Amino acid sequence: MAETYLLKNLKPAGPGTEKLPDTIDILITDGTITRIAESIDQQASHSKDFNGAYVSAGWMDMHVHFREPGFEHKETIETGSKAAAFGGFTDVACMPNTSPAVSSRDVVEYIRKKGEMQPVHVHPIGCVSIDRKGKQLAEMADLKEGGAVAFSDDGDPVYDSRLMRIALEYSSMLEMPIINHEEDLALSRPGHMNEGRVSARLGLQGSPGIAEEVMIARDIMLAELTGGRIHVAHISTAKGVDLVRSAKKKGIRVTTEVCPHHFDLTDEEIERTGFDTNFKMHPPLRTAEDVEAMIEGLRDGSIDAICTDHAPHSVDEKEAEFIYAPNGIIGLETAFAISCMRLLHPGHLSLDDMLERLITAPREITNLTVPDFNEGSEARFTIFDPEAEWTFTADEVRSRSRNSPYLDRKLKGRALGIFNKGKLVLS
Predict the structure, then answer these.
(1) Average pLDDT of every residue of the chain
(2) First and final CA of the chain: distance in angstroms?
(3) Does the N terminus or the C terminus of the chain have fewer Cβ atoms within 10 A?
(4) Which one of 309, 352, 353, 372 is the catalytic residue?
């Protein structure tokens, strides 16, 4: 017998919904949208009234760390997928800094098959170099055949310029992007936060913005030379955005992403909180001027996508002296709220523009199909309320780890659930 869902009183938003009525009901049969209308009066296996909440095509986070295989004490594909569903994401792309690293087809297929059992679609990103060692190119075509959607050595940069040139040449033949962690290690290490006035006051060694910008400039020049596609991971500096903006105007194939914490928080939080390690991340939190540049980059299209760089660490790892604690925070559960509070509600982005950066851009960069919102299409969408007020407590965390700077903070904007893989998953 067919399994049917009737979802009532939803307001469509975002790409693909322009011709729909202001308020709709959606009938889904065995995972396929069978009817969209202003009102549907029909019996269904499952029925829920959403009282005017919004619905859009499913969101995608193109930069997460699910840690499996090898670091399951931090996160697993299962727990990471639960966090993604809670945050409103139907799709994620997970980075390859696992153990073993995702530099062989069998590891790609392992992640993809584990992801098939989860409520979200898990897309593996393959390594640029074997074991992420930056010495020898990975078998890119084989990784793509196994299901990889991009290539990256994230966690570390592709430091060797010759290797990056070759990687861009090979990946361009596959029409796949190289996602680089933009960092000149000789300039940045052993920095523990942004280099500037706050680091000087605190007596901490800092990582300067130019360490990021030098590598962005190199990669843009190599992309121009090779015709390859370079994607700048987790951009964080104003000059870095300017470099990408100028490259786009020249027609160079460069895209970029930004994390909510980089358009919300500054390095002053480390001083304010007395060295709270949940504000330690990589790239580090920068200045208020950099935050404004991230917002402007999103406004003018220089920054293509919003991602989280969801980076779980166990409690005992983060509860260490600041200089010894690992970099990274979880972000899947709070990304939409921070985006609403910093982009939507102040009027920097319209709802449709913000959704484009959560729905369309990540999939276009990774060559994935943007979900349709039509009768006869697979039901893959997100239900949300940008006005919902809530507090992100430890009880709300679905990740295996708890390393978030937003714990116990009042937020505005919340995903209410996703419909994906034939099931309604409510937050």
Answers:
(1) 97
(2) 27
(3) N
(4) 309
